[in-house]
Every structure is written in structure tokens, then in C-alpha cells.
Amino acid sequence: MLNSIKFKLLIWLLIIFSFIFTILGLFLDYELEVVIFDQLDRSLTHTLQTVGNPLIMEASHGQLPMELWELANITTGIFSERLSGHYYQITSLKGEVLSRSPSLGLADITLPIAGASAIPTFKTIRGPNNVPLRLISQSLVLPDESTLILEVGVTLEDTYTVLRSFRDIVIIVFPAIFVLSAIGGLIITGWSLRPLKMFSSKIGQITEENLNTRIEDVRVARELKPLAESFNTMLIRIEDAFQRQQQFLSDASHELRTPTSIIKSYCDVTLSRERTANDYKEAMIKVGESVNRMCDIINRILIVSRLDNKTLKLKPVRIDLMEVMKDVIKIIEPAAANRDIKMSLDGRSVVIRGDTEGITAVFTNIVENGIKYNKPGGNIHINVDEENNQAIVTVRDTGIGIPSEEIPKIFERFYRVDTSRGQTVGSGLGLSIVKGIIEAHGGRIDVESAVGKGSTFRIFLPLS
Amino acid sequence: MRILLVEDERDLAAIVKQGLEEDGYTVEVAHDGEEGLYMAENYPADVIVLDIMLPVIDGLTLLGKLRKKGVATPVLLLTARDTVLDKIKGLDTGADDYLTKPFDFGELLARVRSLIRRKSVIKETLIRIDDLEINTASHEVKRGDKVINLSSREYALLEYLTYNKEKVVSRTDITEHIYHEETDMDSNVVDVYINYLRNKIDKDFKNKLIHTIRGAGYMLKGHNI
Known about the structure:
- Chain A is α+β, with helices and mostly antiparallel strands.
- Chain A is 52% helix and 18% strand.
- Chain A is built from 10 helices and 12 strands.
- Chain A has a 5-stranded antiparallel beta sheet with strand order 2-1-5-4-3.
- In chain A, a hairpin with a 4-residue loop joins β1 and β2.
- Chain A is rod-shaped and about 160 Å long.
- Chain B is of the alpha/beta class.
- Chain B has 8 helices and 11 strands.
- In chain B, the strands form 3 sheets. Chain B has a 5-stranded parallel beta sheet, with helices on both faces.
- In chain B, β4, α4 and β5 form a beta-alpha-beta unit.
- Chain B is elongated.
- Classes of the chains: A alpha+beta, B alpha/beta.
- The interface between A and B is medium-sized, with 21 and 22 residues.
């Protein structure tokens, strides 16, 4: 659950949403308060002027006491109702109340006396009956140089009601919107993760039977295209490897079919009637030969598969390639003599680290090929040398050569040169094993060849 | 009956040849495609047993060339590949039958017999000419209630005459189908074997089945047609 992209997306969405909504709510609340108080203060300023201007005017005519009396006694409207929440009060500098609105007068309550200030001053106080009150105060200088302090107040009850209901709305609406966006978020994340779902179901359908399936470009979201591409590339590689594996299996079983048919035919034909002991013996010899051939093929297949999954056990020791080549020549000598092929060896002693058995098998195989594909009376020249920290063994024969288009194929498994007249017996695994063993030693092999003139194999191995 | 076997694996070719010969066939072996093509064109065989994987010319190419030249000899393909596509390709090239290595030798013999029957008007394995009974599967020959033991050469000659019953077969026909190509054509070996066969089949019976057609050859023919 905690690990699901959908869940994480949703959590983040809700955190961000809550944060934004909280900030927005606080901001709106503050702004609303500012706007409402601004409005209130302007209306208070207006009232202050309405009360103050006649006072100054009447004072210049010496009618101030009359005006003060009128303000306290014959005012109508909201200022005349007892504790209506709308008040004014005029005091002297000494703090003596000169006049007050009937709303105050009727209850005999005075507002707190404000200090003198030529510019209007606002403050919020606790007014009569503990009702919050917004108060404006300003001192008025009369023509006779005396100063009055004028205060106008208005209740904040309505304002606070408006602000409170706004906050109530926000508090009710917030959870509702929270739930709605959680649902919306779930839908959106689910929807945007759908291509991934399709993707994984596609991948889930792939088995060895339909490795040729590809994730089609057109239906994949743009963001998933790189994923689809690398997935397709991976599929191509797997399919390729799988096909090579299958080809190998089919080639291997094909190779085993020939000796198997020989064995089967010898058994079937020999057992079809009574025979002499000598006939049975001959049949057994033939069966034995074919069994040996099968064993050889199976061993080679085993080596190839071990080279493939890198489980071939190599026991690296110090080997002198010159000595190896001398041994190889000893092994091959009889076969070479049989075909009247001369072998020569020169160069110097070069020491590498390698598996004695593997390295000997490699060179035996290469020299054997040099004999097998040689012309009678031809020769094979072997040179052992070192250069640039590498041992180089060169095996040059005067054989039939390899056509240039065949050269890349000779290291493939089960490859067999076809130009010879059916004289070559073998599993065709030879050079692929040679290459595998050389590469397992960190070396490489290359070939140059001219049809009718011969081939030169060069084997490079790292020095010890 | 004469069989051309084209197979590059010498051991396999040797044992298949031996098995077929023991069953009364005359077998010629070619070890590569080129030799096989030459022999198929120049020495008529009754059946060709052809391996697909051959050096020089592969089996299918060889088969294609033969069919193009109008050689209609029945061909039994031998191959180590056994996918359906391989079989389709082989049959479409002009093969008459198909056998996958490793094969059962009895099956090879049965398929060869089936190919021979296909060419002949006779479709049964048990052939009767009057009271002469020839079982081509078991090579058992009976006349009336009497079991007749024939050598494989004699059997091959009788079988050839049987498949061509009521037709005149020349000495050359017989030599070509029963004996190896090296056999001296001028020798009277055919007459000698016809004589052996007559001694065993006709001598003790009133109705003679093997007839000499003067200047032409021999014919196997019953009286109750």
C-alpha cells in the first residue's frame, strides 16, 4: 500500500491541496476583515465629519452650547435608540463630557475618553454591555482656540457575525472539497497509471511461445515510450538468445542422429537373421565406433554449454607455449605422416597463464584442421612469438583455404566446410570450442585465407 | 529390384546396403550428390534412397535436377531434419516418400516395397499367379501347398518377373534391375538363374508359368486369366 505509486500520488496531492487551501482560507479571511474594517472606518470618518463640521461652524457663530445640547437631545435615527451600538461623544481636553448621543445618554454611559489627536485615530474597544466597538476619535480646534475631542463608535457585532459565518463556511467546505479531491485524485491517478497496467499485462502475456510480441509504439503514452523501446530491445535480445539456443539444440540433436541411425541400422539388420560370431563381432565394432562418436559429440556439446554459461573450470598454470606446440606436433605427427604433410616449428619460448588441457586442445584442433584440409604433400608451419604483451601463435597451412564469405561462419557451431568431398568427420563444434576456450583465457583468434593456397590462423593470448 | 542408395556416411551406407541386399535387392551406392546424380541418370533404378545432407550437391538439388530431366524413379528421402517444413519441401521437390533418421530398418524395407508397388499394376503384398503365391513382405513363395525355398537372387528374379507379369522382359531389363552395373552383360547369367527358377517353380507342375519368348526374353504368365 505505502509502496504504491497511486497511494503516494494521492497523499502528495492531498498534502499540497490542504496546504494551498489553508493558505487561501487564511488569506481570504484576512482580506475580508481588512475590507470590512476599511468600509467601517470610512463610514465612521463620514459620521465624524457630519457631527464635527456643524460644531465648528456653530462655534464660529457662538452657538456651540446650543449645538451640543441639540446633539445630545434632538438627534433621531440609530443614534437616538438606547444602546443601539451607534454612538458619539464630545469631551473637553480636561475629560469633561460635553455632549453624547441619546443612545449613550439614555443609558447614562460614557465612552472611554480619548487623547487629543488632530488626525482621526481608530481603535477597537469593549464598549457598553461588553459589546466590541470600533471607535474613531479626533480633536477639533474651535475658532476660539479651545479644543474638543470628538468620538464616534459603532458596534462590531454585525462585522464579527459576517466574519464568523465566512469561517464557518470555510470549515464546512474544506473537508467536503478534501474528500472530493481525494476521489478525483484516485480517479486521475488510476487513469494515468492505466498505460502502465496495460504494459504490465502485455509483459505478463509473453512466454517462450510468443517472444516475437512487441509493445506497439502507437498505443503507448509518450512518457512510456522509452520504457517500451528498451523493453522491445530486451525482447529482441531474449528472442535472439532463445533462437540460438533452439538452433543449438536442433543442431546438436541433428548431429546425434547420424551415429544413432548407424547403430540402429546395424542392430536391425544384424538381428534380422542368424549370423556367424564374426558377423556379430563386426557389427559390435561398428556400433562401438558410433557410440564413441556420440560420446565425443556429447562431450563437445557439454564443453560448449559450459563455455556458454561460464562454468567451464579452467585451472590456470604457467605454460610455455613452445612446449605445448612441441607436444601438439607429437600428437599430430602420425596423422600428418599419413597424408605426407610436413610440420615445422620455430620462434621462442613464451610463457602464459592458462589451462594446460584447454590450451593443448585448442592448438591440437587448429593443427588437426591444418592437416584435414591440407593437400597431400603440403606443409604446416607454426611460429610462437610475443608482441605488445601478447603471445602470438601463428599456424600456417598450405591447404584448400576458406572462401572469404565463409570465414565469419567457421567459428559458428556445427559449421562444416562443404568443399571437401565428404572426407570430414566430426561434430563441427571444433572451432567454436577453440574460440570459446581462447576467449575464456582473455585472448582472441583471427584467420586469413586464400582459396587453393591455404589458411593462416593467429591466436593471441595475454602473457602471464 | 535395383536400388540406388545415395548416402555420404560410409558406415550407414554399408549397413543399409547389406540389409537391402539381404532382402533381395540389388544395391548401388553413391557417396556424394554428384556421383548420385550421375548414377541415377545412367543406371536406371527401381527406387532411389536419397539422403538430403550430401557433399557437393545436396539431396534436394539432386532430386530437382532428376525430375527436371524427366527421371520418374520413385525417391525415398532420408534425412536427419524432421520439421514439417522440411518434409513439405522434400515432397514438393518430387520425393515420393520420407523417412527420418534414425529409422527402423523394417520400416525402410516396407516403404521401399510400397514404392515398388506404386509403379506396378500389382498393389497387394500377396501376389497370386494361378496357384503360385508370392508374399513380397516375407519373401515366402508357395506353389499349391508346397513351400518353395529360393535364394535371394532367385527371389529377386521371380519378384521382378511377377511385378512385370504378362509382359515380356528382355535379358537386358533383367540384368539392369537384378544385377550390379559391373555384371558382364554378355554372360548367360540370366539364363542360368531362369533355369534355377524353373527347376524350383515349374519343374514338378503341369502348368508352366515361365515362358521363353524367342528373340525377346521371358514372361511370367498364368493360364487362368
